[in-house]
Amino acid sequence: MQQKHKTLGEFIIENQSEFQYSSGELSKLINALRLAAKVVNHEVNKAGLVDVLGAAGDTNIQGEDQQKLDVLANEKFIQTLSNREIVCGIASEEEDDFISINSNDKNHQNKYVVLIDPLDGSSNIDVNVSVGTIFSIYRRVTPIGTPVTLEDFLQPGRDQVAAGYIVYGTSTMLVYTTGHGVNGFTLNPAIGTFYLSHPNMEFPVDGKIYSVNEGNYIHFHQGVKDYIKYCQQEEGDRPYTSRYIGSLVSDFHRNMIKGGIYMYPKSSVTEQGKLRLLYECNPIAFLAEQANGLAIGGRTRVLDIQPTELHQRIPFFCGSRNMVAKLQEFLEKYH
Ligand code: P6P
């Protein structure tokens, strides 16, 4: 069968051997995320009917409580993952603490934990701009059969077994890696099937797009300011184009296809940065490196950062290899 017409289900089965030591659980886990993505996609796509369905907090025309979409997305992903007893723990941007999934069957040997940002950029929903779900999967490090601990979640990004995102854009795509490259699947909403539309996704080594909220410019580190000015100078293939959607998944997805760099620096306002290490930066960094790009948290490789807190924030820069390397030159000047 041609690569491009393969469904996500067929792709998972064909690549089962990639999931080292997995007895099919990781495949079941990716399948569960696929199901939850379709449910959330349905809700996101009808969000524009708020006047008809009622805004969050109201009761909709069916008399149901209308939930905020990020709360609903959180519930759908947690429910889907918990019901199938394929994970032993879940951490979410929407949950203060991690959730331990106590399996009923004592012999059940769940060995994976999932960390998730159920609906990143959800403030864009009200203005009909694309949003995304980001997920990160690890093998637990504490003994199988015992309740998970914080240690199972505070693992460096280099130990992820899989990571990916769903982007709810002009079309809905699921993009993920298990450490063997990055593959993108587009949903055919008419039949609810994801098809392999972007095999072996890779960042162009160079790019001409920079993505940053320039409204924060005055608060940035001098090295970041100098790099932004470098992007704007008229020389060689510059000035570059500025594109910033305000949705990490969307900016990252576009830059991976076209080439570019995404930056969320720390600043005098956000002293640690804004993005969360565990369920935003680590999964996106894993994808970036698997797509021949780079991801740094300033002077360090994101995937080498040892997490200390569930919701910790870091400065985040990722994208085309040569663009991130050039930024690093500017950052090094001031250390
Ligand atoms: P700002 C969305 O809230 C998010 O976490 C990312 O998806 C996005 O890139 C960034 O924050 C936008 O933040 O401060 O520029 O509005």
TrEMBL record:
InterPro entries, alphabetized: FBPase_C_dom, FBPase_class-1, FBPase_N, FBPtase, Fructose_bisphosphatase_AS
Binding site for Mg(2+) 2: D117, D120, E280
Requisite cofactors: Mg(2+)
CDD domains in the record: FBPase
Keyword Magnesium belongs to the record: yes
Any GO BP: gluconeogenesis
Limits of the Fructose-1-6-bisphosphatase class 1 C-terminal domain: 204-331
Record's keyword terms, sorted: Carbohydrate metabolism, Cytoplasm, Hydrolase, Magnesium, Metal-binding
Residues reported in the UniProt entry to bind Mg(2+) 1: E93, D117, L119
Predominant location: cytoplasm
Family annotation (Pfam families): FBPase, FBPase_C
Pathway connected to this protein: Carbohydrate biosynthesis; Calvin cycle
UniProt domain Fructose-1-6-bisphosphatase class I N-terminal: residue ranges: 6-199
Known partners and oligomeric status: Homotetramer.
PANTHER family named among the record's database cross-references: FRUCTOSE-1,6-BISPHOSPHATASE-RELATED (PTHR11556), SEDOHEPTULOSE-1,7-BISPHOSPHATASE, CHLOROPLASTIC (PTHR11556:SF35)
Name the record gives this protein: Fructose-1,6-bisphosphatase class 1
